[in-house]
Amino acid sequence: MAQKIWQNWGGNIQCIPQKIRYPKDETTLLRIIQKCARKNQKIRVVGTGHSWTPLCETDQILISLERYQGIESVDTEKMQATVYAGTKLKYLGEELFKHGLAMENLGDIDEQSIAGAISTGTHGTGLKFGIIPTQVVGFTLITADGQLLECSNEKQPEIFKAAQVSLGVLGVISKITLQCVPSYKLKFLSRSEPLEDCMKNLAHYNSENRNFEFYWFPYADLVQTKFSNITDEPPQEANFFNYWSDVILENGVFGAVSELTRWIPSTSSSVAKFTSQAVATSTKTNWSHRVYAMPRLVKFNEMEYNIPLEQFEDVFWEIKECVEKEQFQVHFPTENRVVKGDDIYLSPAYGRDSAHISLHVYKGKPYKQYFKAIEAIFRNHNGRPHWAKMHHLTANELADLYPMWDKFLQIRQELDPKGIFLNGYLQQLFGVKAVY
Ligand SMILES: Cc1cc2nc3c(=O)[nH]c(=O)nc-3n(C[C@H](O)[C@H](O)[C@H](O)COP(=O)(O)OP(=O)(O)OC[C@H]3O[C@@H](n4cnc5c(N)ncnc54)[C@H](O)[C@@H]3O)c2cc1C
């Protein structure tokens, strides 16, 4: 059989695995892992491949969870749902809704698998909410020796804290139990306002709104602010105005002007200013899972760092100054969000309420110098990288940033001493040697 090329969403990572397996149930998933372990074959597991770092790259066995989706059971009293690891967030939202439940917070797309989203510490925005893995109360982990391990705060609590964000190096998560909340409606407002006003009101915007974030377009004096709050208003049918703003403006027109900047990079700053001026005031009211996500049809490369919340303003102004001084030819906005601190060993928000700043560059345009320059600013402020997004940190640097780094490595060594869940990138990232 011809070997299949696998590539991630961004198209920056490609590999040719020896085999791609598509289990549909836990028994098959378990058998695949047991067989690979017996044959000393290395495994990487992939959700939907929405990560830019080479987490899923392999020339051996790739387990794709795209056919392992759905809800196994719902405990309506506890408001908990146990779901298969490959379940896409989009589908999950609709299924939970049928049971009167919802996830308490989400990021800005819903294409990812739940296991992929938790394994990289995916997050949304809001000072009251942790990253998505904080919504997990337990899971079943299939370990390198082919055992099913139940993990939660009560059972195997240390492994639980390690595997809540683990990049798939501790084993394959099979089923996940989520703590949900009753379904709720959100009213979303997007508008344009002067950067100075946004920065003046930042603390207020973050504390007075359930979810707040803003986009700063390089070189522009206007920002796009986005607010979401719980409402009793009836859901709004998708209308042409929403379609115009989400699909035509944010994707169609933005895609076209992005292409212009690729051909004529010197137009980048004008395009950024033009885009900031084109932001119209728009609102959307619907059930929460239909509000968080936006279509993302324009491809880009991304770097994102978590920094301590109280350092956000300093970091933001330094980034702005650096972009303007170095005249980087970029036009995609930076996305600025906040999350509550937690106690998950490899969570970028470990032990601190945090801000997240992400930088995007249109696919096909140079991004390395820009990312490196801004990464230096993040590093000066104890920045921790988003695990799914581009960064250049080494194992030693990461060890200094994560108080539970050694504990995580110890658990990894105990669970997978031969390193069957490692690839070259992960070996280097964690500074470990695989046995084969
Ligand atoms: C357009 C776009 C928008 C995004 N928006 C956001 C956002 O708003 N907020 C944010 O924080 N991030 C965001 N991301 C990043 C994204 O959420 C992460 O890359 C996430 O990991 C993607 O999920 P996935 O299913 O594609 O995972 P994959 O990329 O397939 O895998 C990610 C990691 O999870 C591991 N994994 C997958 N399944 C399992 C399993 N069953 N057991 C153990 N490990 C497993 C993989 O081995 C890998 O290490 C965005 C990415 C894109 C491309």
Number of helices: 13
Question: Do you know the CATH architecture of the largest domain?
Answer: 3-Layer(aba) Sandwich
Structural class: alpha+beta
Count of separate structural domains:
2
Shape: globular
Amino-to-carboxy terminus distance: 26 Å
- The overall pLDDT average reads 95
Please provide a written account of the structure.
The protein has 436 residues and is of the alpha+beta class. The protein folds into two domains: 71-182, Uridine Diphospho-n-acetylenolpyruvylglucosamine Reductase, domain 3 (2-Layer Sandwich), CATH 3.30.465; 185-385, FAD-linked oxidases, C-terminal domain (Vanillyl-alcohol Oxidase, Chain A, domain 3, 3-Layer(aba) Sandwich), CATH 3.40.462.10. Helices cover 31% and strands 24% of the residues. An eight-stranded antiparallel β-sheet has the order 16-13-15-14-18-19-17-20, with helices on both faces. Strands 6-7-11-9-10 form a five-stranded antiparallel β-sheet. α7 runs antiparallel to α8 and α9 runs antiparallel to α10 (368-380). The longest helix is centred in the middle third of the chain and has 24 residues, at 240-263. The two termini are 26 Å apart. Flavin-adenine dinucleotide is lined by residues 9, 44-51, 55-56, 65, 85, 107-109, 112-113, 115-117, 119-120, 122-123, 167-168, 172-173, 296, 386, 388.
Name the descriptors.
436 residues, alpha+beta, Uridine Diphospho-n-acetylenolpyruvylglucosamine Reductase, domain 3, Vanillyl-alcohol Oxidase, Chain A, domain 3, 2 domains, five-stranded antiparallel sheet, 24% strand, binds flavin-adenine dinucleotide
